[in-house]
Amino acid sequence: MLTCLDLSPNEMRRKALRIRQHVIKMISARGKGHTGPALSMVEIVTALYFGVLQVDPENPRHPGRDRFLLSKGHACTALYAALAERGYFPVSRLDEYYRLDSLLGGHPVNGLPGIEASTGSLGHGLPMAVGMALSAKLNGQDHRIFTVLGDGENQEGSVWEAAMAAAHYKTGPPGRRDRPQRARNRRPYGNGHGPGATPPEVGKLRLGRPYRGRTRSPRPGADPAVRAVCIG
Ligand SMILES: Cc1ncc(C[n+]2csc(CCOP(=O)(O)OP(=O)(O)O)c2C)c(N)n1
Ligand SMILES: [Mg+2]
Predict the structure, then answer these.
(1) pTM of the full predicted structure?
(2) Contact, 15 vs 85, CB < 8 A?
(3) Alpha-helix residue ranges (DSSP H) falling in the chain
(4) Using a CB cutoff of 8 Å and minimum separation of 24, what contacts does 176-180 make?
(5) What is the CATH number of the domain that holds 4?
(6) Which pLDDT band, with edges at 50, 70 and 90, does 192 fall under?
(7) For burial by CB atoms within 10 Å, which of 67, 177, 225, 232 has the most?
(8) Which ligand neighbours the alpha carbon of 40 most closely?
(9) Using an 8 Å Cβ cutoff, are 103 and 114 in contact?
(10) What is the band of 173 on the pLDDT scale with cuts at 50, 70, 90?
């Protein structure tokens, strides 16, 4: 079943601390990994997996799930730790990090539960996210797609091409009045910040304006637009 958790700020802080501990343990045990890039996004993945994303760790490919793509794949240890803490796989599996034949490699790869795409070659996360948003829009699906990029990565031309494509094809969230009741009732962001509020840790760039269904009629009752959000 798809669920969006709603941890209290204190629980959220404790969860972020555990994720940080996993990151340090994984990298120090293997002597390999990008400590700073992982630690710098711990709050972001904690907010996403424990207060924003609607997912089903027991059915990671649930068609209605929100998607998360880690574009700066070298920060994967924070993502592995968040996925383990959210229940996609046992926390003990984090010991596999950087072992030969393990799916917990130096960059995220397809096959590990919760990983939406292999990433690490910088500049690909946002283009993939925009493609997923367009696909969802054409299929009348209402899930959201989030991606985290590095500031340096934003110099890649493909990032800007994706941003322009998102604006052109209008992959942004629908305006409040355009949203059907089901989407309005869904908590966009939890933790008592109030409907529509954004946790202070999560900066966001909304791409595109509301889609008004001109290119193809969405499925009746579906929220036709998708949020492609870039957090840097
Ligand atoms: C296309 C591509 N070029 C170069 C690299 C090598 N590389 C890995 S991390 C990195 C720096 C990324 O900096 P930034 O995007 O700011 O992320 P941060 O490490 O600061 O989180 C580079 C150049 C890569 N992974 N992909
Ligand atoms: Mg950077």
Answers:
(1) 0.81
(2) yes
(3) 9-30, 35-39, 42-51, 76-86, 125-138, 157-169, 181-185
(4) 178/210, 178/212, 178/225, 179/223, 180/221, 180/222, 180/223
(5) 3.40.50.970
(6) very low
(7) 225
(8) 1
(9) no
(10) low
Q: Is the beta carbon of 41 within 6 A of some atom in ligand 1? A: no
Structure-token pair, residue 69:
């793509």
What ligand 1 atom has the least distance to the C-alpha of 149? 15
Mutate-to-test residue for ligand 1 from 72, 126, 154, highest number of ligand atoms within 8 A of CB: 72
What is the Cα–Cα distance from 160 to 91, expressed in whole angstroms?
Answer: 37
| Helix, strand, or coil (residue 145) | strand
Structure confidence at residue 206 as a pLDDT band (50, 70, 90)? very low
pLDDT at residue 227 greater than cutoff 90: no
Count of structural domains within the chain: 1
What separation in Å is there between the alpha carbon of 149 and the centre of ligand 2?
9
Task: Provide the pLDDT for residue 175.
Answer: 54
172 is in which domain, residue-wise? 1-232
**Ligand nearest to the backbone CA of 121:** 1
| d(C-alpha 132, C-alpha 67), whole Å | 9
Q: Does the beta carbon of 105 sit less than 6 angstroms from any atom of ligand 1?
A: no
For range 126-152, the mean pLDDT: 94
Query: How far is the centre of ligand 2, averaged over its atoms, from the C-alpha of 98 (Å)?
Result: 23
